[in-house]
Specification:
Blueprint (H helix, E strand, L loop, with lengths): L1 E2 L1 H9 L4 H8 L3 H8 L6 H11 L8 E2 L2
């Protein structure tokens, strides 16, 4: 199962809100909702998030059995 808990922790560490992430990366409300529900999103979205947050993919996503 895909889990974005690390993304939310990274946002907290960087003093950002979900809406800040949405605005700064250009992701849609639907994509933000998918992230909130731990649903798969396009890797391009993950890449944009990593670039904006200046972090690695492991700081955003993890796979849980």
């Amino acid at each position: 199962m895909i889990c974005y808990d690390r993304l939310w922790k990274t946002l907290i560490d960087k003093h950002m809100k979900k809406m800040d992430l949405k605005e700064q990366t250009g992701i849609s409300n639907a994509t933000l909702a998918k992230l909130g529900k731990n649903q798969p999103v396009n890797m391009e979205v993950i890449e944009r998030i990593c670039i904006k947050l200046e972090c690695n993919i492991e700081d955003v996503i993890e796979i849980k059995p």
